Every structure is written in C-alpha cells, then in structure tokens.
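Section: Multi-chain targets

For targets with more than one molecule, the full set of components is provided together so that the structure can be written out for the assembly as a whole rather than chain by chain. Components appear in the order listed by the source. The example entry contains two components.
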Amino acid sequence: MYRYDEFDAAFVAERTQQFRTQVKRRLAGELTEAEFKPLRLMNGVYLQLHAYMLRIAIPYGTLRPDQMRMLAHIAERWDRGYGHFTTRQNIQFNWPKLKDVPDILDALASVEMHAIQTSGNCIRNTTSDPYAGVAPEEIEDPRITAELIRQWSSLHPEFTFLGRKFKIAVTGSEHDRAAIKIHDIGIQIVRGPDGAPGYRVLVGGGLGRSPFIAKELRGFLPKADLLPYLEAALRVYNLHGRRDNKYKARIKILVHELGIEEYARQVEAEFARMDRAAVAAPAEEVARIAAYFALPELPARDTEADAAETRRMAAMEPEFAAWLEQNTAPHRVPGYRAVTVSLKPIGGAPGDATAEQMRVMADVAEHHSAGELRITHEQNVVLPHVAEGALFKVWRALRAEGLDTANKGLVTDIIACPGLDYCALATARSIPVAQDIANRFAEPRRQREIGPLSIKISGCINACGHHHVGHIGILGIDKAGVESYQITLGGDATETASLGDRTGPGFGYDEVPGVIERVVDTYIALREPGETFLAAYRRLGMAPFKEALYADH
Amino acid sequence: MAKAFKPQVVTANDLIEGDSVFLARSGWVRDIAEARVARTAEEADLLLEAGVVAEAENTVVGPYLVEVGLETGAPVPLLRRERIRAEGGPTFAYAPEGIARAA
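Its structure, encoded as tokens over all components, is:
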C-alpha cells in the first residue's frame, strides 16, 4: 500500500496547521461565515441538518488497519461512536464540533490521512475497483493510476477552482466495479495494439438532475501520456465550463452541448500544443508508486486441504455456506478469496459502522487479509486477501459484531444516501426507506431466489444514492410538503451501463416497500431460467412492470 | 391574494457545536419548545433581525424563519425537514445502539 513520502507528510501537516489557524480565527470572530465557508469546505467540513459533517478522503478506497482503527478512535472521541461509508469510498462523521476538527485532522495526519479536496469545486478523491490487485481478469492494478492522479490533482493550481466538482474513477478490469461510466472522467486500463497496457478514456458521465452515461474520448492512450491528457481535458473544461449556472457547470453538460467530437477535437488540439514532458510523471516516480501496490506476499497454502476444511464447515453451518457463496469472490492467487463485509444488516443504515465494528474489521484485516481493507462505492468493506482456510475464522469474527450479513449484490444490499435524516440538501428520507425494504425482503432464502438485484435510493435530485443506475432506482422528492418516491427500472452502473426508465407517477413513503415487492414479484413471474432482473427488464421492457404498479390506480 | 401569516420561530446552527438552535427569550436554546414565537410578520422580522445580529456576533450560523403550528401548545414546525431538525437527530435508531440492534 502507498506510504507518504516526505513531501506528502509535509503537505498534509502544513494544510492541517493552516486549517487550525482558520478555525481559531473563525471562532474568534476574525472570519465571517461567508469568508470561512470555502475554507472549511476545502477541508471537508460541511454544515448539515443537525451538525457539522466531516468527510474524510480514503484514496481509491484503500485503508490499512491502523487507519481504520484511527477512524474508530475519532468516532468515539469526537463523534457519536460511528461513521458512515459513502458511495465515493470515503467516510463521513455526522456530529463533529467545529472546535474539535483541527484535532481530528491532526489525528488523521498521524496515520497519513486527511480531508483535503473532499468538497469544493476541485478534483475529488479518485475512486477505483475494490478488487484492485485481486481480480483474476485484471490487466493492472488501477490504484497505481489513481495514486498518480491523486498526486497530480492535489492542490493543482489550475484546477483548484473549477466551475464545479470533478470526479475521476479508474478500473483495471473489463468488468467495471468502479462505475466509471457515471464519472466526469472514467479510465479503463486496456491493452493496446502491441499488447502493452494503456488507457481508454471516457468523459462526461454523471448523475444528478441531468444524468449522462460517459462517452469515449480516446480509445487508447499510452500510459505515459495520462497526466498531460487529463490536463488537456480539464483545461478545455475549465475554459468553457459555465460558472453562471451551477446546474449546467459539470463537464457532462459541456460535452453534451459541444458534442463529444468537438470536445475531443479541442482536447486533442490542446494535448498536441502543450508541453507534455513538463506534465508527464517521471518513469521513476511511476515505478516508485507501482512498487507500493505490488501484490503482498501471500503464503502458499495447501489449497486442497483448505478447500476441504471450508467445505466441511460450510456443511455444518448453513449460514456460513450462504455467506461463502454470496460474499466471497475469486482471487488471482489460488487458495485466496476476496471477502465483502456487508454494512447492510437487515434494518440498518446502509454504510454505517460502529467504532467497535471498525476495530473488528481492522483486526481481521491485520491477521487475515495482508493488512488491507477496501471501501466500496456500494458502501461495503472488502478484505481483499483472505486465505480460503481462514474464511470460517473470519466469518466468526465478523459475526460476533453483526458483520456477517450474507447479502452482497442482493435485494437488501441497498445503496442509500443520508437523505433528509442528515443532509441539508435532501428533500425526502432515504435510509428509513432502505430499512423498510430490507425488512420486507429479510428472509435470506427469498433474497437468494430473487438473485442479483441492486436497489439505489437518493433523497434528492442530486443523486448521491446513484438511483439512476440502480436496477431499481428510488428518488425521493418533496411534493407540496409530502415525500414522494419516483421509481426507475433498468439502471446499471457497470460496463453495460444504462440509466433507469421512470415507471410513472411517484408513490407515498409508506407505499414504497409494497411497490418494490410488486416489481420483484413481476420479475419472478416472468423471468426465464437463470435470467437476472436486469436481463429480464431489458428483454421485457417497462410494460409488465407498469401494469403491475398502476393497473389498480 | 397575500399568503396568510403563520406563526414562526427563528432557527440557526450553533457556531461551535453545529447543532440546531432556536431563539428564545433567554438566548439560543436546543429545545424548540422554549423558542420565541412570532405571531405577526412584524414580530417575525424583529426575531430574524435578532438572529442576524447573533450571526454577526459569531454565536450562530445561518439564521432563518421556520413556520410552526401551535396546536399542541408548543411550536411544531410545519415542514418535515424542520421537524426532523428540531428533533435533533435522524428519524430512526442510529449508532451505535441503532447499528448494533440492526445487526
């Protein structure tokens, strides 16, 4: 895993000290809220419905155990004993006091973490595949690229005050677990004509009130050209991007209005004109970064004996067997699996974890996952390197803290934004809706019979819950003082990305679980053997679902 | 036709703590039941002005008026958002007790 060099450490320490002074001046009345707001936002401090909120960056979602333990410590010492993992692989604390934030940032800096660029109109945390370095089909670990982008984009003088926020995601696999097509820029590591890895660059994806699937900007970009090319792409956006209307300021609007051909022409012209060598990362720096992401030394295992023991325990413990089937994934090293720790207990708040749960995950990672954890954009945690022979022990340790829910990718593995219960922008509740749906589908066997099904819920049009790309999307809005929920079907955040289609008029808060059940029952009744919800929807279209939802209305 | 005036209270966030506060006779309080209620537009203007002064004095952040009902005797915000805010926390059992219970 990446470790700070002297520059990184000095940069974070200096920034933390700066913010301490800024908070002191604010509390002393030397800065007004109008003056202070942009400063606090640049350091991840929002003012939400009930309290300040601190968003902490988790670069490409990767954490060490000591970092996770520090998050647990912060939760207990300065917050209310828990944290919320987000759809951008970050963590948010919902209750910090402004006077404590400098101490929290000091604590974070002590484990090489910070909250810089987690808000504001700058390049945000670069996200990635939670199975990075693990997935058997992967071409190259995307975190090397993501770390390069992190370094390039941190306090980049030209891109610190963009027209709007800017989000980049990177995947090293054909199967997209990083949702690159709904990012401002999506990067896929691909092989070029000579077999060498390079990049496919997508641009102009995004959700919110104007959702777009990203378009291809470059089919193949040599690796050495990455940073100059990104710089050219951002420069063209920064030049044209509107600052008069925040709803039209994202790059997706620019690409849509210019057209991808014209935008690409301008990017290529800038790329050809610029001093590329001055921007490109030195090869030795790329090699230095790459070394940090080398696959850890995983001891050779007696894979047959491990598998036999795991099968034996699975036969004795049906719940372990279900978890094994649902929450573990293949690893590139024989005898190892990647484990997903679900933060979606039935009836819980999606993405929330207590300090004690964080510590348990840190301990398990330290002893059984080569000291690594990953936060997923689906608001779960991945232990990437677990020996098959240790799976039962890991499951038992997780189970003791309620972290054993066997629902990865199933109907109760719901993404939900904080919604009206926390967020100052929200217009409707989302977490309680997720809880009601999960309770409705709580029975494990029923969940498995339904099969892969992603439900994503947003409590306002800003779409932090990614509802547009949920197989079933739910958008809560305020309709004359009453919460109303619009349903979309057929969304997809992967390499076959699509935006969901709206079923029709919205439904009341109490109706939503029943509505989702009718959609699911319609799918079950009409599906062909082995057909997933998404595949069935794409075959059947909206008509039977609409009939099921509105025939009686 | 002019919108009929509804009783209002002034709310804001505490500068240091960040939590929701309401303007009362005794200053800023956490419990909306103690909030001063404006029963006319003129009273509401005066209350908001007091809030703006408090913001300038760095006591609170972002004061604004909230419409309330008085059916129960104590002010209750008319909008769900403001009711949730006045409750001081989410509408569901949250962590760590809430998370432990869900798990």
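The interface with chain A takes residues 13, 15-20, 55, 57-58, 61-62, 78-81, 84-85, 88-92, 94-96, 98-103 of chain B (CB under 8 Å).
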